[in-house]
Protein 1
Amino acid sequence: MKLRPARPVSRPSTGVPASPGLRAWAWLGAGLLAALPALAQNRNVPADAPPPASAPASSPEEAAAQPEPVNNSLLDAPMFYQLLIGEMEAQAGRGGNAFEVILDAARRSKDSVLFQRAIEIAVQGRSGDRALVAVEAWRATLPGSTEAVRTQVQLLVALERLDELAEPLKLLVEQVPPEERSAVIAGVPRFLGGAHDKAAVLGLSETALAPFVNAEGTRTASRTALGRLALAADQSEKALGLMRRANEDDPSAPGPILLALDLMASQPPAEAVVRAYLARPDALAALRLAYVQALDQRQRIGEAVDQLKLALAQQPETSQAWLTLGAYLVELGEPKEAIKALIRFLDSADVKRDAAERAANAGQQAATTPAVGDDDEDHEDRAQRRIDYAYLLLAQANEQLRQYPEALGWLDKVDPDRSDLALVSRRASLMVHQGQLDAARKLVREAPVRGTLEPRTRVLAESQLLQEGNRWQASYDLLLGAVRAAPEDSVLIYELAMTAEHLKRYDDMEALLRRVITIKPDDAHAYNALGYSLAERNVRLDEAQTLVDKAASLAPDDPFITDSLGWVAFRRGDTASALRLLRQAYNARPHVEVAAHLGEVLWAAGQRDEATRVWREGRSRNGSDNEVLRDTLQRLKASL
């Protein structure tokens, strides 16, 4: 567990200079919180046990930020020698003696720094009882010290002494100025996050925050904090109720919306609160971006794109959002819009500033040694990776538009020192489209790449090239050889099964997928692929239903599995369920094959204008050559 240092208490100036002698000891308390994990692991060890290694001394800036001593009298000779003896005892490993000496000095001087030092000695000696004695003495000596109460709460959490926590936690909130209470309450879930008994933490927090739950200035923060603690305690329904009340208290407050975003996975109704907030004209772009992330986690890429565009309309300077939008649009097969978004990213102020910094650092490196620090190098590396990723996406978007020279031009911009298999595969794919399949295969087999690759990685890349070149039998033969060499590799077996399906070798496909399920019983894609294949061929529909239901239980947010559920429902004659499921899948992931299925169900339901619209949308997303859409239109004798 990691706890933050206690925040210094603001005190009025007395006009008397602080004692330089006592201030010189401020560094001694710096290791207190760093040592708390050891205390939590072993709460009481004999006093004279050798202490663990001390934490490094704080910097002069950190030492200067330590709280002012309450007693500003000069450090006299007896006090100096007492502190010296205490430190000598600590250095000698006699923690019990050191603790008593320093605690006595803290009581006599009424100095917060010395109380902190006494607690640190107890913590380093892994004596929780002594640490609590010191913090109780601190509170008794300085009753108004918020630092003392904050430290007591931290210690009690580290020691799992939760039954004693409600009183100091309540007092901690009461002692801060009224205008700061909401911020302190909002931080309670993080403050108590290290405790293992989440249900007990929730109960004691309800007691501690009871005076603030209905108070006008703190009720929103209190209900949100309790909601977070309830969610941590696996009481999501209770968390949902608290979140809703907090949102009703203040519909513009961001705290309840962030809680609602975290509740979406376990309590889907929480999303309605999020969407209602985002409909407000004063909705924060940062919360919209957080919603985009939540949608991404649920594979609802189509909806994420819509929200991301709205966020960028509010904050067009957010460079990372442009990169994310470009990646989504490439995935959705909207290359023209993707190129616009990616160019906006590359033209953004952030990217240009990073480029200028890299150029400056490169010049500095040429002139002096060393050039930049590790943090600067890490930042530069991350920035360059983002730019290289944009180049790869631009190449892919141009490839979707069949603009192969332009695609190659973007690939040439990628830093050659960063060459990985993704870059090599992209180049190879362009070569296939230009009739150079054999050369492309040789490239992915032999090109040196950065990092260590699993043996199957190059095989899968070469297989993909063969499929792009319409050499499906060759792809099957390549994968079959790889499976024989690695008969337990479920990834290779799955890819071989999908290739067998394309070749209409359905018995082989089914045997291979059942082999995947045996090796990896939680592989949702294997269940889904087998169930969908049965439904597509309109055979053994009960078994197909069982298989796709199993897939959905393993991956409930996967839009392609939702598509399979809808397709099975349609094959079984349940048009209403099919439409509901296929609309859900299409909104989440408007893929051309999902469009083909949704359009067919709409066509069968007599909604032919909407079916035509959906098919046109699907075809516009790089779907003009899609086999499923083409076969659907031919079978239904529908024209676009």
Protein 2
Amino acid sequence: MSLNLNFEGALQALRTYFGYDAFREGQRKLIEALLQGRDVLGIMPTGAGKSICYQIPAVLLPGVTLVVSPLISLMKDQVDALNETGIPAAYINSSLSLAETNERMRQVAAGRFKLLYVAPERLESEHFRALVRQLEIPLIAVDEAHCVSQWGHDFRPSYMTIVRLLRDIESRPIMAAFTATATDVVKDDIVDRLKLSEPVRVTTGYARDNLTLSVVRGADKRQYISHFLRERAGQAGIIYASTRREVDGTHAWLNGLGISAGKYHAGLPEEDRARTQDAFQRDDVQVIVATNAFGMGIDKSNVRFVIHHNMPKNLEAYYQEAGRAGRDGEPGDCVLLFSPQDVVTQKFFIEQSEADEERKRNDYRLLNEMVQYAHTGECLQLTIVRYFGEENGEPCGRCANCTDDREMVDATDEAKLVFGCIHKLSQRFGVTMVAKVLRGAKDAKLQQFGFDRLAYYGKMSGQTEKAIVQLIQSLIGDGYLRLTDSQYPVVQFTERVRDVIEQGERVYRRVERELPPELARGGSSGRSRGSRSSGGGSARGYSEDPALFDALRQLRKRIADGERLPPFVIFHDAVLQEMCRVKPRTESEMRGVKGIGEAKLAKYGQAFLEVIRAHI
């Protein structure tokens, strides 16, 4: 499609509809490319403003823009938000009756909307394809585009229907693909499978400056969560668990403590899931316990924390889920509660899957990288951005590792014992066997192989097997050792071992310390950032004027309930905080608050001004 629309029109649309004067990093380049008729691939972290990259061009382009989105809840929230800004939008999905669907399609054909959201499964409907043949569709935007890749963490075969739809559109539309996270392999797969034509690629970076990442090992998970939630009463958060049983148990336990929480997993009736998600979106429930079924499409902007009760299957899935905290740019805490049983659970899932052997090997490789993240002593944010291919970066200064004040000790001699033992075992055994040999365990299998006659047998007999395993895991986490990509991974050397043995590089690790008694499981040791919070002890702890912020939130909630909308669709928390800072008293001053477009100013401005004036 040959286009060359004026970028000034995009800036004007941004100001009019969204209340901002400038685009964020990456947005301008993507929007300029789309307005010039170029395909694009945008990799932008959660909260970076991916949606605006196709919503602004949709306003300026002729006809209707088709948005392919995987979840009904995401469509509804985005459509509600667009209509609130004054941009006519609609969705067609399974939540509509046949009569409603037909009426919606008539409205689309009549040119009532600028954006139409559909699920990929809808593209297989001949009735819908007949509609498409009648429409002028200049742009197709594919949200959560990693779903099209077999190497992504959430592959959905239905996404393959997107390309087939192009046959029904007379003039090929511009194609735009967006996702929050994608490795280089996944990016190339997206381009290939969606048939993007020499796309402009923009990756804005994976670092989230407002998130504080933590890994907690060896804790009693329930005690930790109870302690954590007490310190954040009133804050919205998600607790992810790996199984339905874990969700049900944690949910019942929280309610037993008097903490109002919802639960969400694929085993619940659809109406229960919808009711729970709706309550969470509307701030009627502050905490959700869920499997990863509560995933993409969580558009709630004021989630202040995400706790992983269990370790996810890979870093891509972890960062997608953890990144649901702090979408509004305000502080968010992301805590991974790690236990060795999590690894066993994820291996079970891999073995029970119907994937071929190549895919299973890849899944084991990704799982090993997740385990390394759980044990690394390096900056957690830096570890993640490097996983996604960004080599340049500085420690974040916020994560649990960057702020860890424990003493660093020289562990070179212990590390050399581990390296020597692995060498004598010909790099053919796993972590547990190496630890047993060094501990001098009286193990039948060990004796059967004759390992009790090795020079390294019992060299670390003064330590527990668990402590030796922790040492080996930390050496894996810090890149001295690696695990093979298999169900029973073998410990092998990396090039860093040569630097220690031949170049004299020293190995340092932090002193293990006991968790506080109320958080420890059976007195085990581990690392914990415990009660540390980047967001303050309450939902309003980070506002410049907590009393005014509370009053504005209450007004927003009343308006949202009256209009049957989630509160963040009215205004994000960040907009309310900006009101607290600026304290506008006139409509003109309110227009200067970032995030308030003309439609929302006309609709809600006076009510919020009255609350601000009364407070002043």
Protein 3
Amino acid sequence: MKYQLLILLGLLSMAARSQSPTFSVTFPLSKSVKPLDGRVLLILAKTDKPEPRSQVSDAVETAQLFGVDVNELKPGQAATVDASAFGYPKRSLKNIAPGDYYVQAVLHKYETFKRSDGHTVKLPMDRGEGQNWRTAPGNLFSKAQKISIKAGGGQSFAVVMDQENPVLPLPKDTKFIKHIRIQSKRLTEFWGRPMFVGAHVLLPAGFDEHPDAHFPLCIYHGHFPDDFAGFSETPPPANMDTTDYIERFKLHGYKKIVAQEAYDFYKKWTSKEFPRMLIVEIQHANPYYDDSYAVNSENLGPYGDAIMYELLPEIENQFRGIGQGWARFTYGGSTGGWEALAVQVLYPDEFNGCFAACPDPITFDAYTNFNLYKDKNAYYAEGPFRRTPRPGQRNYLGQVKCTVEQSNHRELAIGTHSRSGDQFDIWEAVYSPVGADGYPKRIWNKLTGEIDTTVANYWREHYDLMHILRRDWKTLGPKVAGKIHIYCGDMDNYYLNNAVYLMEDFLKSVQNPVANSEVAYGDRAEHCWNGDPTQPNYISRLRYNTMYVDKIMKRIEESAPQGADLKSWRY
């Protein structure tokens, strides 16, 4: 009997220790009288500076995150975050060690969309912030509060989301920078509600003084721009604070360097020698990401056509673009690098050259550092007796920051159904077919990494840019020869150089016609190297709008059709 009692006490003690804390998360009636849909995100951090919600990342210092979906959550009704909630980097609340923490909760709001394909889905519509759950206007959140989790578990904590992210101001027009926003007929029809695309347009010097001039157009693709960046009519103050430090470049005072580069660009832009043109940054944030990847997609809708056949004509009509393919060029880095090459490949007659820097994987034979078609698992290289985690990010020395699995589990904690608004999820949302539930078909099991070969085959035929070029070279080759320029650091943080190597081999091999392309690498250069070996990358990455100009002008001179306007804009 004595031993049975000891065993029972031991089991009870183990049960007590296995109990996890429970969090009851609510919002007050003052923040919404209506029930809300979305995802409740609960963050635990060891410090409240910055706020816990700003500490979630792929870095080893990340805060802890848990997420639960809520549907029609009423004011005052509790969303429960307990041991069953999926977490990152710790999988469950039961794995959280006793100690002091700062806790904060966020409600990332979802809207209901009744799409034209017959599916009804709940997604977080962008609200002018560039698809960011931390700052999205209207999202509710709590102030960080200090708690103490004790050994033995079983504690309950109440968290009230009584704060709300404010509406963001719209950018204002200046002499040189104009803003345009149109409702897209194509996207509105697809999404079943008004949908808009927009752009920030940098006008050339002398635009008003030369009303008869028409201009070439360059699209600078990239992530969501809240305004046209990197252009300033005033120099930085001489006494500007230079105590800021950017770890990536090991530099103090980088903000002043950025400000000086913006002013230097203004001086070049307005100089007599600089060619007069329009530079456009597109705003196409959507319910899945901060931009659409500028292509048509089963899940996102016809963004490629909306941009190409609705937005660009409006821009060229308003701001006197030449409006012909020989006078359009495109460039960008990372997401923008993929987009630059993609629109050149998918709309080959509409552009006369692309400059793709550090592009997202341009062939899925090297989907970062694994083969999407031949490997069985995205998270592990698997042998008969061992599984090796795949690295997800590295520095120029090859030191690993996180694994592919860790990044994907962070996304899964932020949002189910590809709704994290982050990198792997947007690739999935753009490239995948629609699933039976209306959300993107998973390219792999988000928990385990097991790859779905059927979905991978769909990706290949629709968005693998090297495969498309190879498959269709007989018809595509004559339209893109001489137009493709690709640049990448050979120590890209996300292993994007691997796909570039394969693309380079392909472009060198093709005949009838030869590709006449350019591929260059930065020695030991990390992500965002964009083709200038004479400057450190912390400088060259700020010069996208000037570094390809000479090549653009040469291409125009070589390829403009007879009778083309080569003079009105060269004042």
Protein 4
Amino acid sequence: MKTNPSQWVVFKRLLSYLKPYKWLTLLALGLLLSTSVIKSLIPLIASHFIDSYMTDFGHAALMLLIGYYGMYILQTLVQYFGNFFFARVSYSVVRDIRRDAFANMERLGMSYFDKTPAGSIVSRITNDTESISEMFSGILSSFISAIFIFTVTLYTMLTLDARLTGLVAIFLPFIFIFVNIYRKKSTAVIAKTRSLLSDINTKLSESIEGIRIIQAFNQEDRLKDEFDAINEEHLHFANQSMRIDSIFLRPAMSLLKLLAYAVLMAYFGFSWQKIGISAGIMYAFIQYVNRLFDPLIEVTQNFSTLQTSMVSAGRVFALIDEDGYEPLQDNSGAVIEQGDIEFKHVSFSYDGVNPILDDISFSVKKGETIAFVGSTGSGKSSIINVFMRFYEFQSGQVLLDGRDIRTYSQDQLRQNIGLVLQDPFLYHGTIASNIKMYQELTDEEVKAAAEFVDADQFIQKLPNGYDEPVTERGSTFSTGQRQLLAFARTVASQPKILILDEATANIDSETEGIVQHSLAKMRQGRTTIAIAHRLSTIQDANCIYVLDKGRIIESGSHDELLALGGTYHKMYQLQAGMMEN
């Protein structure tokens, strides 16, 4: 049976995951082969019983009958253990594939996540790997078992009567023709069905994550219509796949089996006296036709699932092979001592065509704070993305303590750079585990970090204190409380450099005073880069840079920029007017 070359490559790669479990796999294969042999012996025993003991039932016939049913029991036991060991191998392989997919996903850079919906990634690591599990645990074992049974049965039939075997063999080419037609017609349909299932997961994920906005803007009906459209299209292709299955799989195979029965019975009816075929041999051949066609019917019945598994495996391997990693570091062993930062004529583009940062130069030393302001799309967050090594810049230099930032390992950078985002992310767990972030910290160190950023005040009022459960994204806490916990997490890691990406943009005025006081303490003795929306929060910065279309158009202290009367002055007046109103 020929397969599409790409599918064959995928299949061989799947088989490579069996190497760590080769002995268990061989044991399972041995048991399946034993099952095939036992199945082929049962009709022979029945044939011998019919021809020799039907009219003379005695002790020998009783022993043969006991042996006949004993073979059925033995077949059941051997088949059970064969399937059991195959299932163990299957789940182990899927665990390994899922682990590889997740491990590679964790290494990918921000550019991959910018262009790939989260729901699609979730679908590959969950639904698609589950489909692979079905292939290994059920389909692959049935395929191998079918090959064994087919081979052993065909050999046994030939030894019994070559003429009858030749009559049955006439129908075998038609089986492979039907399977080949099915493969050609079903591959594209199955691939589209899996793709639409991924789209459903993506739409579902987006709807759950954005449910507040959806409800706030009364967009439930629109999202429902979009979901229904994708769901209906998925149903259309699923039905189309089912129609192909219903024509080319079990009905076609069953028809061929009935025709084989008819030919055998007709041949036996017209020729048994001439050719001397016994009733026992005829009974055995009827059973062997079942054993010849039934595994082929099962294989073709599972072929659609196999096709789905191949498509799913291809999608998972595409994730495993994705190489859009973070920019490489030299890992020279350099250690960040002070945290002095300098950008020298840095230019950057996300797509390599449209410039986002154009000839950016600035410097900031330990204990100093600089801030970037500007309209949306001016390049503020891109400076952070470049410095955090989420993206590679195209030209210029980024220096850290006078050394090229590329000479520091990723671990060194992550340990010494504390990032606080506009929307703080909290994990399932407790307040303590979110502050620790799986670092080796004592309870006293966790409490000290919370006290330092003034988060201890509200934590102590909670029913369980530091053991208070944190739900998904910390939804039970206010924005200010979540931000204070993010501050505590950052302080606990003792970074030398602090990056604040609009850390106070979503804070209410009541909490802003506490947050600002915490920020002031966090910035002491640290190199700080702040991206600010509220100009009132950065007035004490050593230098403020105004960005426009990726270029620095103004720089200076708050008072110097106001005296300049330029863009910053207009922005400040606009915000001051809004606050007065």
